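Figure 3 (text version): structure tokens given as input.
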């Protein structure tokens, strides 16, 4: 069975920059800072494609982690391979959630 994970990220009309485009509907971080790290998603680097998503607000009292053990990794593992990632975002103008990558 194929392993698939969906990551909900900030809506942007254009990922991969330019940096002056402000992301929309991406939670508190873009509202507070005027940008989201998703602005560089889907850029190839050294033969691989990378993307960013935020687990949510976290601090020492409330650490968050991605449960890759639910995808077949050991709980102590820090990475897993063989997983398809589908990036989705909410379009604030049309409404609804769409696949963006």
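Below: residues designed for each position.
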């Amino acid at each position: 069975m194929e392993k698939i994970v969906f990551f909900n990220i900030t809506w942007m009309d254009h990922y991969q920059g330019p940096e002056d485009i402000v992301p929309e509907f991406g939670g508190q971080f873009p509202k507070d800072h005027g940008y989201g790290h998703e602005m560089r998603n889907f850029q190839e680097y050294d033969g691989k494609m990378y993307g960013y998503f935020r687990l949510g607000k976290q601090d020492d009292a409330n650490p968050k982690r991605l449960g890759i053990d639910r995808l077949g990794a050991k709980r102590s593992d820090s990475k897993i391979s063989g997983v398809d990632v589908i990036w989705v975002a909410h379009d604030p103008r049309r409404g609804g959630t769409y696949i963006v990558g």
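The mean pLDDT is 79.
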